[in-house]
Amino acid sequence: MDYLNSTHHTTNQSDLSSVFTRQVLPVLYAVLCVVGVSLNSVAAWIFFRVSSDSGLVVYLKNMVVADFLMLVTFPFRVAAEMGLGGWRLHVAVCRYSAVLFYSSMYVGILFIGLISLERYVRIVHRSSSSCASRMGGPSLQNILQSISFARVLALVIWSFLLLCVLPNAVLTSRPADEENARRCMQLKTPLGVQWHRVSTLFSVALFWVTLLVLAFCYTAIAWRVYCSYRQVRRDGRHVCRKSNRSIFSILAVFFVCFVPYHVCRVPYTLSQMPASDFGEAARFLLFQVKEGTLFLAAFNVCLDPVIYFLMCRTFRESLLRKVIGQERRQRSPSGAQSLSNI
User: Fold this and answer.
1) How far, CA to CA in Å, does 232 sit from each of 124, 228, 236, 239, 246?
2) I need a surface site. Which of 94, 112, 227, 314 has the fewest CB within 10 A?
3) Rg value, the chain, Cα
4) Closest C-alpha to 42, from 67, 19, 14, 7
5) pLDDT tens-digit readout, 211-269
């Protein structure tokens, strides 16, 4: 969904490539794919064996699905950058793989925003929610933590993102050959170019809105945790630290993975405009930075399982039971063997 230079025909993506983007990044993506599949397989095995007993679990399960969809695109990216599959593989990446990658990333970003809202109403609005429940009315906490409401939100997010990104694949339908296979924008129809720009701006706007939501939610949560720590000095210290580890982990992952890419994306997009004043060296540097920060965004698939472990008690307890059960099964054959030798 990034702008590839389709107006400056003397500068294509190959000219912007370097040892970093053609040799280092494919290896890093391959390692990321192996680790991400391993971690998310464990997460999926645990999550989809437990019931969705809260809105938080529903949101986290959808994040697992989004991470798996992103992981599916990694082998295609690695193979294309390593020169495997020829120019036809680059066409497949432009039409399908890249669209799936970015749509999965923004779905994950939206679910992070929903999780932050759920944590906000649980911690900050706990007293007002209990008051509303005594009066017999529904509270904001009860609504956001409702399983049915969470499922409806998840369906709306997936449907809306699908409607936004599907035309990017359908409208990338111009005839392809070895000359334009690596320039995705030249594979788009005129309507596809316009839709690409609109969907790109919309996706970036989603990110910045989510960032504002996170800033508001975690500022309020931090203030609430600080006030609780002051009220209960002896016991509150341990609770405060535990809350910091579990609640603010999602904020740390968001800033590490997504903020650098979107900060870099603004000048990079400007450098790809027809009337850009950026020189060749500036465009080359911005492309390298954009690719590096995009890898950080992809690294999110390995950090999300950490969020699941810290934030979801159901996930944490299920994982610990699995680990303990595995250790016991490993001990039992040795014990049986020792008894048989007596």
Assistant:
1) 17, 6, 5, 10, 19
2) 227
3) 23
4) 67
5) 999 999 988 888 887 777 777 655 545 545 555 566 678 888 999 999 999 998 878 87
Asked if residues 29 and 74 have their Cβ atoms less than 8 Å apart, the reply is: yes
Residues 6+ apart with CB under 8 A from 97: 73, 76, 77
* Integer CA distances (angstroms), 198 to 108, 212, 245, 291, in order: 20, 21, 38, 22
Residue whose pair of structure tokens reads 């809350």 in the numeric block:
243
Alpha carbon 54 to its chain centroid, in Å, reads 21
Give residue 290's Cα distance to chain centre.
Answer: 17
pLDDT in tens, 90-131: 888 888 898 899 999 999 999 999 998 888 888 887 645 444
190: exposed, middle or buried (Cβ count in 10 Å: 0-12, 13-18, 19+): exposed
Distance, in Å, from the CA atom of 152 to the CA atom of 184, rounded to the nearest integer, reads: 34
User: Global pTM?
Assistant: 0.83
Question: Position 8: which residue type?
Answer: H
Q: Which of the 8 DSSP states describes residue 325?
A: H
d(CA 193, CA 98): 15
Rounded to 5 degrees, what angle do the CA atoms 100, 105, 111 make?
Answer: 125
Q: Please say if the pLDDT value at position 149 is more than 70.
A: yes
Task: Look at residues 37, 25, 40, 35 and name the one whose alpha carbon lies nearest to residue 78.
Answer: 25
Looking at residue 308, the DSSP 8-state letter turns out to be: H
Q: Are 245 and 212 in contact (CB under 8 A)?
A: no
Cβ–Cβ < 8 Å for 282, 11 = no
> 3-state class of 47 per DSSP?
helix
Per residue in 292-309, pLDDT (tens digit) is 999 999 999 999 988 888
Q: Which helix (H) or strand (E) holds 1?
A: none
Q: How far apart are CA 193 and CA 199, in angstroms?
A: 10
